[in-house]
Predict the structure.
Amino acid sequence: MSRILVTSASGANGDGYGTLLCFSAGGELAGPFSDDSRITDPRGLSLSPAGDGPAGDLVYVTSGDDRVLALDQNGNVTLDSGRTEGLDAGGGTFAPDGRYCVTLRRRGTILALPPRLDADGQLLLPDGSVPFPRGFGFGDRGELYLSSGVGPSGKGDNTITRFDPDGRLRNRRLVSDPELSPLDLAIAPGGNLVVSSEWPFGSPGARVTIREYDPPTGRLVRVLAPDPAVKFARPRGLRFGPGGQLYCVGQDHVVAFDFPTGRFLGVIAELRKLNGQAVLLLE
């Protein structure tokens, strides 16, 4: 790992910087990863699969400007979906078929875009599939796990919903965990579901945890927690890195865990008013 990229929200959603920030592997702020004006209030952040033709090794980011962009590793925008009024895209990840998928927060669904961002996307799920999407991932058989959390309006259902590869609903409430308030979801190397949680959502005294679930049953496997002295809050983006490390970004901090043991490794990067939404590791 040579660089850490973090999307920092802004405006009504926080006091962040409203751009894509770059940190060194040692946690020192290097400044914006790109100065392109199309990156505003960014959210989702993913690296395209290596060797994927002309779109390989690009950094994909969802912008608050109602567009999706792809940047090369020097921060230059190489692909632009163009503006789609009201897109309101959140987190993003790549589907098994190579399409870049993003949550549509107002519509409660997921949009799949071609990797070159040169055509309209396709909905993977019907509108209103969940009250407020908070993160998603694909299982090894193509099944889709969508975490459903609480939105800015205060409405939500705090669970994980499972869909078949063809988009059919399999289990509306896969997880029944009274202390789950999901903010992001990732698939662990072994296939388990890993969710960043702030419960109760929005409360000054909320408990911040990383919660791991068994995909077939929704059973809670274990809970990881940061050192309380760090005062880690508003946990958002999750990212697995080399050596079994799990990274999480939130307000003011990027932290890491040793995932196999669950041990908290500490603060990787720190910046006041970071308001981090997603984290990405670049070699």
About this structure: Residues 113 and 121 are 4 Å apart (CA to CA). Residues 131-225 form one domain. The first strand starts at residue 3 and ends at 8. The chain is about 0% helix and 45% strand.
